[in-house]
Amino acid sequence: MKQSSTIAEEPLKNKVVKGAFWVFTSQIATQLLAFAKNIIIARVLSPNDFGLFGVALIALSLFDVSFRTGFNAALIQKKENIEEYLDTAFVINIIRGFILFVLLLFSAPVISIFFKNEAVIPVIRVISFNFLINGFVNPGTVYFVKELNFKKQFYWDASKIITDVVVVISIVFLLRNVWVLVVSSISSYLVRMVVSYFINSFRPKFRFKKEYALDLFKFGKWVLFSNVLVYLITQGDSAFVGRTLEISILGLYKMAYTFSNIPTTQISNVIAKVSYPAYSKIQDNIQRLRDAYLRILQITTLLSIPFTGFIFILAPDFTRLFLGAKWMPMVPAMQILVFAGLIRSIAATTGVLFYAVGKPKIDTVWQIIRLCVLAILIYPFTIKWGISGTSIAVFLSIFISNIGFSLMAIKIAECTVKKFLATMIPPLVSGIISVLIVFGLKNFIGEEIRDFIVVAFVGVLIYIFITFLAGKYFNSGYLGLIKESIKTVKRN
Predict the structure, then answer these.
(1) Please, which contacts does 413-419 make with residues 24 or more away whose CB atoms are closer than 8 Å?
(2) CA quadruple 348, 352, 353, 359: dihedral, nearest 10
(3) DSSP state of 220
(4) C-beta of residue 401 within 8 angstroms of C-beta of residue 373
(5) Where does residue 434 rank: exposed (0-12), middle (13-18), buried (19+ CB within 10 A)?
(6) Distance in angstroms (rounded) separating the CA atoms of residues 260 and 333
(7) I want to staple 245 with a disulfide (CB 3.0 to 4.6 A). Which of 120, 249, 337, 388 is the partner?
């Protein structure tokens, strides 16, 4: 069944708002489920179990990004009909999945030598089946993002996380080891692949055309280079910790990273999914592109800043109450990494802009700079301060590179530095005031989870109230943004 790749008559702004609503709803729902899952398994499993699984994910991600085609990004960026390209993409994905499966399967012993732990071998070999499964995903799912049909994307993503949570809850008290994580991962990949055919009418054929592949790779090669760099940046720190320190310490670091970055990372994922196809459709209209970019930046900071402050203040209490004493050593790293997550969410608004205007090379260049900073700092900082030092190195690398990301985004959108900074000041001020109040309320947190929830909830209400006042009396523009978004969602 042929699907149009052109934008419908519905105004782009409405499609973006609706898309943001569904993506945000998806992220909230999936992250609440993931949050509950992580708390359950953190209570039952040990840091060593998370470290073993972390090594497997590091290996999986390394092979994945090293052979990533970047075709999806290229298909979304294209203005013309993409249906005839999808069969070629499907064939390449299957071949790629099989090759990666074989490579990871036989590389497991070498990886175990690097991490000095033979226990990771069977874990890596079993999780390598994810490559085979993922290769058969319906390529037509790219239309969800290209046409901003995030309602279907929501259902598709939900299938994976729901499977993950159900499997974990079903077997965690039975196995009580790393295989809980492995089985849930494979199960969720398998369900997601099957659902991709039920939720999209496109049916791929085993048909390959060289000219289509070359056309897609012409754009995708920069995505590939950038993804390799992003891997080294986002997984290189974990690999270094696992190699230099201990597997159990890696487990602490991975958990600190997960909980510190859940809100800001998910916010940036929402923004990236919605803004990339939207930017691509208006890439030739600088004024609309600039307005859209500043609006996206405004929304990102409005959501990311308060989460950052609350996590920093409440991290010790959260860890003690929800995860248990065995996870307390991760708290300092968690408090540092939450600021890295904030900067990353701001940087995420720029990367999709570069891709949308057909300049992915800019992202690659600044990712190289970010990697260089991390490479210089990570060894001395980790040796001196452990995973807290690793976290500082991660923060400084993204902070320094984000200066370059932002300046290039300002140039492409033909914006001004003053306007760029002014967009972030209102949520920053509101966030600081709210965090200070929550800091005072911390004294009332007792030994019960309900006390923590009450303080966190009060903090959110305070931030909303302050933001409302800023919008009403200081013309920050947030009230108009929120009202307009609510009206659009109700209409549609």
Answers:
(1) 413/286, 413/289, 413/290, 413/293, 413/294, 413/353, 414/286, 414/290, 415/290, 415/293, 415/294, 419/294
(2) 120
(3) H
(4) yes
(5) buried
(6) 9
(7) 249
> 109 with 168: CB under 8 angstroms?
no
Type of residue found at 274? V
Gyration radius of the chain's alpha carbons: 22
Q: Single out the residue of 79, 349, 83, 387 nearest to residue 240, CA to CA.
A: 387
Threshold 0.85, pTM exceeds = no
For residues 386 and 341, give the distance between their C-alpha atoms in angstroms, rounded to a whole number.
19
Residue 200: φ, ψ to 5°: -135, 135
pLDDT one-digit tens code per residue, 229-245: 777 877 889 999 999 99
Give the Cα separation of 483 and 487 in Å (integer). Answer: 6
Of 26, 268, 294, nearest to 149 by C-alpha is 26
Give the number of other Cβ atoms within 10 Å of residue 406's Cβ: 20
Instruction: Give the domain ranges of the chain.
Output: 9-221, 235-492
- Reading the block at residue 210, the tokens are 């060289």
Please give the backbone phi and psi of residue 60, each rounded to the nearest 5 degrees, phi first. -60, -45
* CA–CA gap between residue 311 and residue 340 (Å, rounded): 12
Tell me which residue of 54, 199, 194 sits closest to 120, measured CA to CA.
54
pLDDT tens digit sequence for 322-369: 888 899 999 999 999 999 989 988 888 888 888 778 787 888 888 889
For the record, the structure tokens of 21 come out as 């609503």
CA–CA gap between residue 5 and residue 75 (Å, rounded): 10
Residue 94: its pLDDT value, please? 93
